[in-house]
Amino acid sequence: MYEDDDCIFQDHCIIVARYDENLDWLNSLIETEPWISNVIIFNKGLDDIRLSSINKTKNIVKIKNVPNIGREGGTYLNYIITNYERLPDKLWFIQGNPFDHSPDFLNMMTYNVAKLYINNEFQTLTWRYNSSIPPNIESDKRFYIDKNRIIQYYINSNSQQTVEAHEFYDVAHDCKVKTLNIKTPKPYGSYLHYMCGSNGFPLPSNIIPYCWSSIFYVKKSSILRNSRLSYKRLYKSLLYTNEQGGNEGFVLERLWQYILTHKTYENIKLLRKELGWKYNDLCAMWNSSLMYIAIYDKSYMNHPSIKDGIEEYDSTMIYFNNETESFECSKCIGYNNKPLSIFPCINLESAKNILKFQIDFVSKKMDIMRGVQNLVSNNLIPTLFWPLQNQKKVRISENVNIHSYEKEEDDNIKCYDHKIELALDKRGAEIMTLRNKEVH
């Protein structure tokens, strides 16, 4: 036992919604984590659960065989409604097999990790839906708990599609949403809003937090934000058309965190502010070989700290830090997202000027004359007139070197008389060529 077990883990319960899953992992968890003293398994399948021998002496686990209706959402609601007046202070709600959604789940339930989130009003315990949904999440470590993989997701409360860094189009769920919206009564704009408003929960704004697959920790105080009557109405609406919950069950999955926290955001800007995203929404990629700059929006979807990019030796990502009002660059990386616009650009400094010009224009803080002057002097003039410069060296920026190229027999590079090719950074191929010796 741990010295402060009684202090931080007292009055808790772990709720497990089980159909036919193997629960050997639960036995192992109970045997290795002595702080766990109260577990209830709501069993909707065969009565074939094998309990650990330790349970015979300590009576930690209770099994309740219940009808197979409502999936995990019905199980959670039934427990809350039945125990509303005597809820324990700390609760875990878990599916019978949490590992597809939370590969580090067992670590999240160890004493040393659980104590890090035990005082949170709500804590999502999942990382994903499965190994491919959502895509490209491995780099996002913002929400990890002691290196254990956790991601806090957010959805549009109308479309129920994910927003922020892990925005992607969930085709299957969109079909469910559109089917439910057909029967959504006015004045509700979507079935999710109807599910809230008609059952006595406050209507959300445009964005709400989302715990993928409904595996979470919550405190009693969060559950008591809502009346018992609201939970009873929600349970009734869940089973109204289908005893397994139907499409309504998938909406409830996306509603749990909002219902229990009432957290909502009017727009993505306010959400990013709360998350501490310090970069401007606009970012850019400069390609040194093809001499262009691509401007992107949603910098949080094009940043290596959140999304893995593509290794490209001639690409540099450029971000503007709003806090320090300075540029930050990530070399040899690019993204395949569709750009807002593309401009010719001869060097990195010009790329920064173009990005800043775009940022100032969007934010309406633009000094037009100064912005145009910077663009003309740093990008337009060099781009238009560098072929006419008959100099041995052309100084473009601190990161630019000029290289002479010596053609070999098996070399496929074509060289043309009087053509100067610029090596735009040290990492690029050494393509600064001058075949005509008279120029040297």
Q: Please, could you describe this protein's structure?
A:
The protein has 440 residues and is an alpha+beta fold. The protein folds into two domains: 5-269; 276-383, no CATH class. Helix content is 30%, strand content 18%. The chain is built from 14 helices and 13 strands. The strands form three sheets. The chain has a six-stranded mixed sheet. A five-stranded antiparallel sheet has the order 12-11-9-10-13, with helices on one face. Strands 6-7 form a two-stranded antiparallel ribbon. A hairpin with a 4-residue loop joins strand 9 (279-287) and strand 10 (292-296). The longest helix is centred in the last third of the chain and has 18 residues, at 368-385. The chain is elongated. Pfam families: DUF3431.
